[in-house]
Every structure is written in structure tokens, then in C-alpha cells.
Design a protein that fits this description.
With 564 residues, this protein is α/β, with parallel strands linked by helices. It is built from 16 helices and 19 strands. Bound molecules: 1-deoxynojirimycin (NOJ).
Length: 564
């Protein structure tokens, strides 16, 4: 008989357990859309504190807070105007300290987002750079260049921004600055010593306030070799990413992280970091090594179909990669940048376009972004999402969950264009998918009332009527809900947790994956439509209705380890 540990996550003890992150369940909070404490339509820090019971009852080990810093919100807060403060609309530093204390008291650790590739154009450094003019020290913190063509009226190169349009923007005195993302996100110059020192101060600032770890935004883009003549955009695409590419995944970025590592290790326990690094998989261990950031995201499940072959390959490869770096693996199905997985898995396969996006329109008609009108299978998507989640939660390594996925929330795609906020939607001219707002709509806490309990007024992105069906208050009462499954799975995971290994058990059925952890905990996922006969009856959790002697189609079950 398995006893489910319902106690909160292991009691927080800053002096011990330096390896807490290795198999942690980390819950990503997008602060502006979590809970609004003051009725201004924007989620805030006290709102998160007020929902501590939800976080503790869910049974997570840590929260990762997406940026809550002062920002003009040109990119949902990833345009940071001041790295060592809280946006006044979201609270104060004192509110932040309260939140950290409240989370720590409930055994939950705190990870904050560091955005080092670019600042906001409202950052005092950028404003100073605009004032100070060409050749100034202030401009050297960014990447300014003269233009080409008559009067320098053409950009220094034809590079494209990741969000669409040119990667260069001209300022009043005629120079151009580089921005790999939105115009309002000028890239920093990581050859500049002051830039490096300032981020060290930022890491210390938050570490001193009790933050346990950091998520590093586009960790593979900081350092650049902009020796002239600059390559063309087409040339950039064909230069191998072997550590010497002009703008991506350069070996020298690890000099930056070696300095950061010294900072992390000067704390007890050492602060942790996880890299958002979109790099060739063979190069991931460089970021995940203990000399560098220590862990790196693996986004492969988030890009995969609900497919046994893809899942098995991804798991095997990533466990191998993690072992090579001495780190643990990370698993993600949803985050603030992609279509929620309950919706993704309801789309006709393949479930994503070349950019990894698969936004859809909600309603009776569902439309694949930039593609043909298709019907989406909502119930199937939800069923597959639950099965994929239980599969993920059984894997060795850390699991990253995104707010709302515990409710089985679907993507919101029918946001009117004039209510959208995501720069990828606008810079793509609306032709390149619907952007990322659909997974950032404020959470429904109650079935009715103003903004479904998100706050006392409206929500900054419109919530659809069908959100009522996913409200926390409703799901809490429903033993078959997604929330009930997540809570039980996380509690069980704590009781069942085993060392970081996995052994595949051959099932003889290409649609069924089965693996065993070293203590005998087994996970069986049936990706197919038919039943898979089960030789054991000790199912401790199932993503769908439990059936004795079989695993139903598109269902995951966990089997108990043998009695001691
Ligand atoms: C990655 C973040 O996840 C995304 O939301 C952001 O737009 C870009 N980095 C730029 O900071």
C-alpha cells in the first residue's frame, strides 16, 4: 500500500540539500496573469502571495517567476527597465520579500528570470546612450553602428529580428542599434566590462534577498563577434553553430557564466540556474555543466507530437545528454511562449509549424495559425495532455509546469486583434500566427464573478466564457478534474521518487511506452486508441478512468514499486 505524502514540499532549509533542484517540480508563474490583488487588471506580487495555498496544495518544489521588473511591457516584461526592482504596478520590493518568505515557509523555493541579452529601451542606460551620442561610453554598453548607403540611411546589415522586421533601428542622430527581439529591446554589448559587472550585482541583489535560483533568458545569445564586414542574413543562417558563430551559441559566452558560477557558489546552498538555450543538442551540456549554468531546458517534448517513437527518442537522448554534463534533465510541455499542450494535442498532426507555434482560434471553428481551417479535438487534446503530463512527471529529472496547465486549460485564440499584446503578433503583421497571448490569459479562480476571481475588476487580456469550466474552485471539488490529478500525482511523485535512472520495458506494442525507475516505480503510457493489457493491478494513479487489467487508449498509469 502506498501512502501519499500530503505534506507540503520538503521543508525549506537553506543550509541543506544543495541538490534540491535535480528532481524538482518547478511551477512557472507569469505574474501579470496569475492573481490581481488591487483590481487594476494586472496580476501582481501580493496576488501571488494570496494564492499560496493553491501553490502549496499543488505540491510543487519551486516557483519560477517570469519578469516582474519595471517594464514598458513591449514584450510581456522581457523588456526590463530596472533589473533590481519591482514594477510599481506589481508591487514593491517589500512585497517581493514577503512573497519569498511566505513561499519558503511553505517549503517552496523561488527562481527569478534574468534577461541579459537586452534591456528595455526605457532602461536608464539606453536613455543615456541616446543622449550621449556616437562614440560615447554610454553607447558602448549597446551595439551601435553607422548605417550603410547614402547618408547611412540603410541599416548596417540586412539582419532580421526574431520578432520580425529589421534587427536594426535608427536613432535621431543617424546611428543604428541592434535588437534581436522587439525594437524596444536593444541588445547589450557583452564585451563591455560594466555590463558584465552590473549583471553580477543583479545576481547578488536577488540572491541576497533569498532567491534560490535563476532562469536565464536566451542564454545562448549574449556574446557576439560583430567584426566588419558583417555577414548577410542568409550567410548568418548557413554559418555552422560550432561555438564561433557571430551571434549564436558562442563558446565565449561561458566566460560570462564562469563568473556567474563563482557568484552562485558563494552562497549556501549554491544558487542554481537553468539556461534557456536554443542550441544544437550536442552543445546543451556546455550550458548544463556545473562550471556553467548547471542546468538547461530541453524543449523537445514541447515540440513533439503525442507520439511514442518521438517521446522515447527524446527521453533517451536527453537523459544521456544530462548525464554527460553531470546535470539532471528538464522536461517541459507548456510555457508562456507556446500553445498550451491541451490544445496542441487536439490539433491535427503535426501539431506545430516550423517555428514551433501552433496557435488556433477557439470556438466551433478552429484555425491553425497561418494554415487551413481545421476542427480541433478538445476532449482528445485534454486526454492526451493528461497522459503526457503523467508520463513527464514519472521521468527522472526536473519537471517544469506552466500556470494553468494544472487546470487542463486550453489556449485562448479568439482574442480580438486590438486586445492583443504580443509583439510577435504585431511585428509578424498577424500573418505569422496569433502570437503568444493565448497562453497568457489570466487564470480563472472562480466559476463566476469579475474576471473569474483573478481580481476585483477586469483582466488585462480578455477571458472567454468557457474559462468558468476550468476554474480552480470548480476543479477542486471534482475528483476527476485535471487539478485533482496534478495534486495527487505530485504528492505521489514525492513518495515514489527514485534515483535519476530509467529502464525501458519492452511492451511488444509500438503504441505503448513503459519504463521502470530504480525503486520499481513503473510508468505505462498507451499512445494508441486500443487497450493495452496490463499484467498488474497495483495502479496508483491513472490519467483517465482506471480499468482493471488494461490501460485504456491515450492513458498513462503509474504502478507501485514492490513492497519493502
Ligand atoms: C525568451 C522568452 O521566453 C520570451 O518570452 C521572450 O520574448 C524572449 N526570450 C526575449 O526576451
Amino acid at each position: 500500500m502506498i501512502t501519499v505524502d500530503q505534506s507540503p514540499a520538503s521543508t525549506y532549509d537553506p543550509q541543506h540539500d544543495a541538490a534540491w533542484w535535480r528532481q524538482a517540480v518547478v511551477y512557472q508563474i507569469y505574474p501579470r496573469s496569475f492573481a490581481d490583488s488591487n483590481g487594476d487588471g494586472l496580476g501582481d506580487i501580493p496576488g501571488i502571495t494570496s494564492r499560496i495555498d493553491h501553490l502549496a496544495e499543488l505540491g510543487i518544489d519551486a516557483v519560477w517567476l517570469s519578469p516582474f521588473y519595471p517594464s514598458e511591457l513591449a514584450d510581456g516584461g522581457y523588456d526590463v527597465a530596472d533589473y533590481r526592482n519591482v514594477d510599481p504596478r506589481l508591487g514593491t520590493l517589500r512585497d517581493f520579500d514577503d512573497l519569498v518568505k511566505t513561499l519558503h515557509n511553505r517549503g517552496i523555493r523561488v527562481i527569478v528570470d534574468i534577461v541579459p541579452n537586452h534591456t528595455s529601451d526605457q532602461h536608464e542606460w539606453f536613455q543615456e546612450a541616446l543622449q550621449a551620442g556616437r562614440g560615447s561610453e554610454a553607447r558602448d554598453r549597446y551595439i551601435f553602428r553607422e548605417g550603410t548607403g547614402p547618408d547611412g540611411a540603410e541599416p548596417p546589415s540586412d539582419w532580421r529580428s526574431i520578432f520580425g522586421g529589421s534587427a536594426w533601428e535608427r536613432v535621431d542622430d543617424g546611428q543604428w542599434y541592434l535588437h534581436h527581439f522587439a525594437v524596444e529591446q536593444p541588445d547589450l554589448n557583452w564585451d563591455n566590462r560594466e555590463v558584465r559587472d552590473d549583471f553580477v550585482s543583479t545576481l547578488r541583489f536577488w540572491s541576497d534577498r533569498g532567491v534560490d535560483g535563476f532562469r536565464i533568458d536566451v542564454a545562448h545569445m549574449l556574446t557576439k563577434d560583430l567584426t566588419e564586414p558583417l555577414p548577410t542574413h542568409a550567410e548568418l543562417q548557413s554559418i555552422p553553430q560550432d561555438g564561433h558563430h557571430p551571434t549564436l551559441d558562442r563558446d565565449d559566452v561561458h566566460h560570462v557564466y564562469a563568473e556567474w558560477r563563482a557568484v552562485f557558489n558563494s552562497y549556501e546552498p549554491p544558487r542554481t540556474a537553468v539556461a534557456e538555450a536554443w542550441v544544437d543538442r550536442e552543445r546543451v551540456p556546455l550550458y548544463a555543466s556545473p562550471e556553467s549554468l548547471g542546468q538547461a531546458f530541453n524543449f523537445e517534448l514541447l515540440q513533439a507530437d503525442f507520439d511514442p517513437e518521438q517521446f522515447r527518442r527524446i527521453v533517451t537522448d536527453n537523459l544521456d545528454l544530462a548525464a554527460r554534463s553531470g546535470s539532471s534533465s528538464t522536461w517541459v510541455l507548456s510555457n508562456h511562449d507556446v500553445t498550451r499542450h491541451a490544445t496542441r494535442y487536439g490539433l491535427p498532426r503535426p501539431t506545430r509549424d516550423d517555428d514551433g507555434h501552433s496557435t488556433v482560434k477557439h470556438g466551433t471553428e478552429w484555425v491553425l495559425a497561418g494554415g487551413p481551417a481545421e476542427m480541433i479535438d478538445l476532449a482528445g487534446g485534454a486526454r492526451r495532455a493528461r497522459a503526457a503530463t503523467l508520463f513527464l512527471l514519472g521521468l527522472p529529472g526536473s519537471a517544469y509546469l506552466y500556470q494553468g496547465e494544472e487546470l487542463g486549460l486550453q489556449e485562448v485564440a479568439d482574442i480580438p486583434d486590438n486586445a492583443r499584446q504580443d509583439p510577435t503578433f504585431f511585428r509578424g503583421g498577424g500573418t505569422d500566427g496569433l502570437g503568444r497571448d493565448g497562453c497568457r490569459v489570466p487564470l480563472p479562480w472562480k466559476e463566476s464573478g469579475e474576471s473569474f476571481g483573478f481580481g476585483s475588476a477586469g483582466a488585462h487580456l480578455p477571458q472567454p466564457a468557457w474559462f468558468a469550466g476550468y476554474a480552480v474552485a470548480r476543479e477542486e471539488k471534482d475528483p476527476t478534474s485535471s487539478l485533482t490529478m496534478y495534486r495527487r500525482a505530485l504528492a505521489l511523485r514525492r513518495s515514489l521518487q527514485s534515483s535519476e535512472r530509467l529502464e525501458w520495458i519492452e511492451t511488444g506494442d509500438p503504441e505503448v511506452l513503459r519504463f521502470r525507475r530504480p525503486n520499481g516505480w513503473e510508468v505505462v503510457t498507451n499512445f494508441g486508441a486500443g487497450e493495452y493489457p496490463l499484467d498488474r493491478a497495483d495502479i496508483v494513479i491513472s490519467s483517465g478512468p482506471v480499468r482493471l487489467g488494461e490501460v485504456a487508449g491515450e492513458t498513462t498509469v503509474w504502478l507501485a514499486p514492490p513492497e519493502e
